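We both want to read discrete structure tokens more fluently, so let's practise on a single case. Once you have written the record down, we can walk along the chain together.
***
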Amino acid sequence: MTLPTVEHETAANPTHSIIWLHGLGADGHDFAPIVPELVDPAWPALRFVFPHAPVRPVTVNNGLPMRAWYDITAFDARAPQDEAGIRASIASVEALIAREHDRGVSAGRIVLAGFSQGGAIALAAGLCHAQTLAGIVALSTYLPIAEVVAHERSAANAATPIFQAHGSADPVVVTQRGIDSRDRLQAWGYTVDWHSYPMGHAVCAEEIADLRRWLGARLAA
């Protein structure tokens, strides 16, 4: 069963899709308001798909349930990772991609995007997807279960462009985690368009403008 979603189509009969995953504790409504600011009227018809993560207990939230793509035991890079939860969310993204196929949008016209926890899933799911995607957007995030992804990543997305952005004063996912993930991806041969902004764990107007330019190149290709 696919996750519940918030959807926004920029015109009838979309030919391209952007599947955008929210951060910890948010929901699919979180990034929907940026669509008018992000979209260029010259772009082809787009479907934005903003799924709601399942509600689950989150250890760093004292075990209280909230929307989360996987459990987090601590924000430290050395903390144990919830591989089972991450894999389950990757499977949910696969189901959303399959639904876009069924609605007439091929993998090569799908961008996976996400913020924070959602960005971690977008990276892992995108790199491991069996068909070539149009691009991957990773905002204020890191590559999860990197050793697993190293073995399971798909050759189909070896040349898929990645937009990665981070706040230089991020207190939640510290900048170094983003830099370390960028360096690992580049060492594996991926093309990473890296951006840093003077902000915390957030999204800023300059970042949206940079992403707009980057997406424009992907959608024109």
